[in-house]
Specification:
By secondary structure, this protein is of the alpha+beta class. It has three domains: 66 residues, Structural Genomics Hypothetical 15.5 Kd Protein In mrcA-pckA Intergenic Region, Chain A; 75 residues, Pseudouridine synthase, CATH 3.30.2350; 129 residues, 2-Layer Sandwich (Pseudouridine synthase), CATH 3.30.2350.10. The protein has seven helices and 14 strands. The radius of gyration is 20 Å and the shape is globular.
């Protein structure tokens, strides 16, 4: 199958473009296509998910897509309570709750955030565009563009590292005051800066600044140095996850985007939006401090 990238395309990365175009194909399969050389851009094999595309590029998918069962591409709007931190005519910023996925998927049975955003957008007269992501079990600040022009601007700002994101996380073991993890991820540069906020017997509360935006970057980076995020079921430590679930009631990964700062493309001045830790994470800290 062949695609031609149009001028109104808002997706800079090849993986995000394909996710939007191949709605009937599981995400894992799309990444497999890229990894195994089944994706061509202008007749050249592309193997990096973050490869950047431009208007006019020709993209070939060298796979028989008919084997994938068709499913409805329509995302059904559903009313959903949104915790709005900031809103203007072009931008909506939310405090995303843990446990809610951004998009529908094969394993997603409950209402997703985009369904709630479309419902809200229909009511308020705008079309939502997600310009970055938070994992299902990560909470905190999430920026949504209310039109395509703003989505493209914000996507460029993320790419050029003009948006600062700060996370709070609880990781296994005791860390020094500060540090930088710069192990490449997916054959690409990845830089995670952290600062110790508080030490506990078997864990450290850290503030984390992302200087790049690789998939699961914080979780993968801390796991790579032997200090995985507590509660992380994919890269974490099963034993300490079970301990914190039983002793402290932690039922998801301890990872929260607490602050986002960037120059507002809608109005003059810099925006700094904060989202307080959820009650579940605060309760874990209260118990640890007892």
């Amino acid at each position: 199958m062949e695609f031609l990238v149009q001028e109104n395309n808002q997706y800079r990365r090849i993986d995000k473009f394909l996710r939007n175009q191949l709605k009937n194909v599981p995400l894992s399969e799309i990444y497999k296509f890229i990894r195994t050389g089944k994706i061509l851009v202008n007749d050249k094999v592309v193997r990096k998910p973050h490869y950047e595309i431009d208007a006019g590029d020709k993209i070939d998918v060298l796979v028989d897509l008919s084997i994938y069962k068709r499913r409805s591409n329509e995302v059904v709007p559903v009313p959903l309570k949104l915790d709005v931190l900031y809103e203007d005519e072009n931008i909506l910023i939310l405090n995303k709750k843990a446990g809610i996925a951004l998009h529908p998927g094969d394993r997603t049975k409950s209402t997703t955030l985009i369904q709630g955003l479309i419902f809200y957008g229909n009511k308020e007269g705008f079309q939502p565009h997600l310009v970055h992501r938070l994992d299902r079990d990560t909470s905190g600040v999430l920026i949504v563009a209310k039109n395509l022009r703003t989505a493209r601007t914000l996507s460029r700002m993320f790419k050029e590292r003009l948006v600062e994101k700060e996370y709070i996380s609880l990781v296994r073991g005791r860390l020094k005051n500060s540090g930088i993890i710069d192990t490449p991820l997916d054959n690409s540069e990845a830089i995670t800066e952290y600062r110790t906020l508080e030490n506990f017997h078997d864990a450290t509360l850290v503030s984390v600044i992302l200087h790049t935006g690789r998939t699961h970057q914080i979780r993968r980076h801390f796991a790579s140095i032997g200090n995985p995020v507590i509660g992380d079921t994919l890269y974490g430590d099963k034993a300490i996850n079970a301990l914190y679930r039983q002793r402290y009631g932690l039922r998801r990964q301890f990872l929260h985007c607490i602050r986002v700062s960037f120059t507002n493309p809608s109005e003059p001045g810099k925006l700094q939006i904060k989202a307080p830790l959820g009650e579940d994470l605060e309760e874990v800290l209260r118990r640890l401090r007892q």
